[in-house]
Predict the structure.
Amino acid sequence: MKYSVKKPGELKKFLSLEAGISGKQAKKIIDTRRVFVNGRRVWMASHMLSPGDVVEAAGAGGSKERGSAVIIYEDEYVVAADKPSHMLSDGGEESLEHFLRKNTRNRALRAAHRIDAETSGIVLYAKNGGVFDALKKMWKEKRVKKTYIALAYAKASFDKKTVSAPIGGKPAVSAVKTLKAVKGLSMFEVEIETGRRHQIRIHLAGIGHPVIGDSLYGPAAAGTGVHGGVKRQMLHAARLEYVCPFTKKSVIIKSELPGDFKLHAGLLDKEQK
């Protein structure tokens, strides 16, 4: 989960207070090397934080962490939250929808769409039934621009490529743009016109670039080599753009890459040097 630092202090103490856990538990989480400060991995419990720092800690506080998922956009009609990986968009007490309902005290809050549990990034929630119906209509009519960032296997040999391949017998189109490419690895920006189940993962695997960490469509070698230690599929819902059906104004929502994603994306920069 993400936490913003308001005053100087030691990382262990800060994590303990923010996540509502003991100092010993905070130290254990830091020791797993799954804590990032401003996108950089930190493993020293005594690391000193400064105001404005952003701390990301996977596994801090269990359900409390999930309950404090960051709201990155809100207006009269919707709430957009930055979903951490390994969490459902909706359905059940461990879903982001459930915790947002609890935190916003709005039991009518409802997910307008879903992203895979392992995928991080933007999920949009309607504040009431009327808004939900309008958003679902907007999705059905393909009036939502959805952009993802993916880390994938194999060096890309193209700048842009449109993948049009049906999924489950239904049309599916993905526009793929290469952001970085080095030996064995690539970073893509993927805009999807449709929203079929596992669409990006299937399409990238189909052109020889399965998403790193994808246990379903990735190669048998997943989790080895320069990207070893990946705990989930490297796919992030980074941008959502639409025209509000009520105000008719353009809405653009952006989500920064989480710490684990930045860590592995940084490996591409090192390979390029």
Remarks:
- Helices lie at 11-19, 23-31, 63-67, 96-104, 129-140, 199-206, 259-272.
- The chain has two domains: 2-60, 69-272.
